[in-house]
Amino acid sequence: MTQEPAPYEAGLRSLELETSLADLPVEGRFPDWLEGTLLRNGPARFQVGEEPYRHWFDGHAMLHAFTLEAGTVSYRNRFLRSGTHDEAMAEGRIARSEFATDPCRSIFGRVMAVFRPRVTDNANINVARLARDFVALTETPLPIRFDPESLETLGHVEWADELRGDITTAHPHVDPASGILYSYLTHFSRTSTYRLWALEPGSRSRRELASLPVDRPAYMHSFAMTGRHLVLSEFPLVVNPLEMALRDRPFIENYRWEPERGTLYQVFDRKTGEHRATCRGPACFAFHHVNAFDDPDTGEVVLDLAAWDDARIIDQLYLKRLRRASPELVAAEPRRLRLDLTAGTVRTRTLSTHRMELPRIAPGLEGRRHRYVWATGNRVPGHFTDELVKLDSDTGEVRTWHEPGCHPGEPVVVRPPASAPSGDGAGGNGSDLSGGTGSDGNGGTGSDGNGGTGSDGTGGGRGGNDRPDSRAEDAGVVLSVVLDARSESSFLLVLDAASLEERARARVPHAVPLGFHGQFFGRAGSAPRG
CA 58 to CA 122: how far, in whole Å? Predict the structure, then answer.
């Protein structure tokens, strides 16, 4: 019996087309101040020859660029020519192991892989600025440079240091004030190590801040930064590196859920690298940290997560399951954790019963106290994302944007030029494409305070020249690439960041595969924010 496909199945098909499109058809009106490029990253080829990839996280990376200028929108997409991509295309088969796909399943293949290891550089998760380079990122420490205008692949980043590791994060943090970039490496060995590092603006020499030995490293997709601290969240999804060395299964399938370990939050001083505390909380799992900040009154580290009670979500994102009409996905909930660095304890509360993932905050507030969170959500429990959500973390109030048959991607918040949230000296919308420092239809629904429908979908919202109060944390707009399952096409959606009312959309004639993360880079930007 043939199973009915998921309504968003068009977003999980391979897209072989590489194209450049000028002047996309626009509904509504873009703000006059909104100029720059939204760069998005995600998988776009889910099969090579007769060999399919097994997991959503495995597909070949494709970059997408939406450039906004004078009220018009252009679009360009290109595959990232990684070593993984080029070898697979040359050999007509999957050539390197991915997150959940291993081409070396025979005994011979595993033995040969020991002598000729080929680590994937399929950087399909995120984009960022490193020194003067635009880079695509994944969880192996092999960032790939690309041209932000042509999207041409330029090669791997060549570090000017000897820092080594096997696994990293595609979510580095940038201090809004100093421009210093922070990240970490996990080095697998008999005694494995977490290594935190910092990168000064313009430099390619990473400075090791701290190292922490660990017997069974945790799978950590992201980490947290405050004004004073860096936090590694060791969820109890852990691996024995010696077992992994046998290479008898794909990367993630070597990890085991051990809830009795609880979750360990390793807190480090951001300036000195001193290991300040290990705080133990209940077992949970998360891909994404929302934000973190220091509470000056209590001395606690406050950390927000889009969290699950366990790690089942990884299994639920295998393509065979995800392509079902009813994939039965467990959605994440927004949680606030308070880490007591003296007692080593964790207090947790749920910020809202409204489920959400792919969270973003206002640019310039990274590591500082925030109020609002923008994210994707799903109205039907167990289904794929079908709405955008704005959460007031102080009151728990939720606003939503929803349109039947549409599946939005990660919301990216863009603030008006020269603006900053009240109380913060930082501002800007991202890096400058010219060299500054440093997720789809007709009609539409807007939002009300209860998550209901609001605007009439005709591109309402404020007009082009008006400028929101730049001092407000939720000033500006939200950008999302949306899959329209009805027409099997996609569009760039622009919403008012405060009300989530639609302002404009620009349609692409094909379905953009469901991707992961992106950043907006202004035409006259400053250091990377958020």
Answer: 8
Looking at the domain assignment, is residue 286 inside a domain? yes
Q: Could you give the CA distance from residue 94 to residue 52 in angstroms, rounded to a whole number?
A: 8
Among 146, 155, 135, smallest CA distance to 76 is for 146
- What the block records as the tokens of 114 is 């020991």
Instruction: Give the chain's domain count.
Output: 1
The strand ranges marked E within 70-191 are 72-79, 126-130, 133-137, 144-146, 153-156, 167-168, 173-174, 181-187
Helices (H), 57-150: 83-91, 107-115
Domain assignment present for 240: yes
Three-state SS letters, 29-47: CCCCCCCEEEEEEEEEECE
Intervals of the chain under pLDDT 70: 1-2, 104-118, 247, 419-470, 524-530
Give the DSSP H/E element, type plus range, for residue 397.
none
Whose CA is closest to 169, among 196, 192, 145, 149? 196
Distances in Å between the Cα of 131 and the Cα atoms of 36, 150, 205, 312 are: 19, 19, 10, 37
Residue 414, domain extent: 9-522
Domain-embedded: residue 2: no
- 3-state helix, strand, coil split of the chain in percent (to 5) is 10, 40, 55
- Cβ(175)–Cβ(198) under 8 Å? no
- Chain centroid to Cα 389, Å, comes to 16
pLDDT tens digit sequence for 59-97? 999 999 999 999 999 999 999 999 999 999 999 999 999
